[in-house]
Amino acid sequence: MVDATDVVNKARAELGSRADLPGMSLMQHLEELRKRIVHSVLYLVAGYIVAVIFAPKLYLLLQAPLNAIKIPLNFTHPADLVNLRYIQIPLVGGAILAAPFILFQVWLFIAPALYSREKRYVIPFMAAAILLFFSGAFLGYYYVFPGLLKFLISDLGNTLGIHPLISIEEYTGFFFALILGIGATFELPVIIVFLALFGIVSPSFLWKNIRYAILGIFVVAAIITPTPDITTMCVFASPMMVLYLVGIAGAWFVHPDRRKAKEARLKEKEQEKEKSA
What is the pTM of this model? Predict the structure, then answer.
């Protein structure tokens, strides 16, 4: 069984150990938080403005999977097009554009609570998080979503003899939920490595409970798989299993126990040199 209590206790212990780090007062923390929130909002506004300008081109990307199966979109409310043009597409597009800058603001806020040895991981963390998210979104947009639409609309529709009438609001909500959801799923290695860096989980813990991870992965794969057969589900589950294993490898690399063991070996070597001298 997964020992959730042990994970929670480790998280509490890690937070308690950082209370002794030199930091700021409560008011200084609040002021820093306000500053980072303001900066993040400004980046969101800038991303929104850019996305509004390019919204028509972004809409073509959104419409492309339906064009491939020759299905038109419909709107059922006079304000649907305004909502699509100035709210849905710009907000999501702007948030994606601003995400790297917002992540950096989060880093600036939590940096005082990190040890110097941990701060060196910020650039690899941010680069990996951005790369993995866009990799997942790319996979979802070019493979998962078109296959899912073909199965749900063309295959099932032809089998049952039912013609689709898809509204803009329902389609865009479904599109963003799936694409962003798959992108978020690809953040699994980053989350695992982040938890391991703080000693909350260990490679042995992750490996010991891999069967529960596999079960969760196949549940997610069953939800996003465009066809109901087991072979296709395994095809989509395989990358997520690889990501979990990559996360375990990354956890081994950054876990405090490995660092302490390395430091102990170096100390032993130094002591042996001193004795031999």
Answer: 0.75
pLDDT tens across 117-160, in order?
767 777 888 888 889 999 988 988 998 888 888 888 888 888 88
Kindly report each contact of residues 50-53 with a partner whose C-beta sits within 8 Å and lies 24 or more positions away, as own/partner. 50/93, 50/94, 50/97, 51/89, 51/90, 51/91, 51/92, 51/93, 51/94, 51/97, 52/86, 52/90, 52/94
pLDDT digits (tens, 9 = 90+) for 197-221: 777 788 888 888 888 888 988 888 7
**189 with 247: CB under 8 angstroms?**
yes
Q: What is the three-class DSSP state of 74?
A: strand
Dihedral angle over CA of 120, 121, 124, 127, nearest 10: -100
| Inter-helix orientation angle 122-139/168-185, to 10° | 140
Output the CA torsion 247→251→254→258 (10° steps).
-150
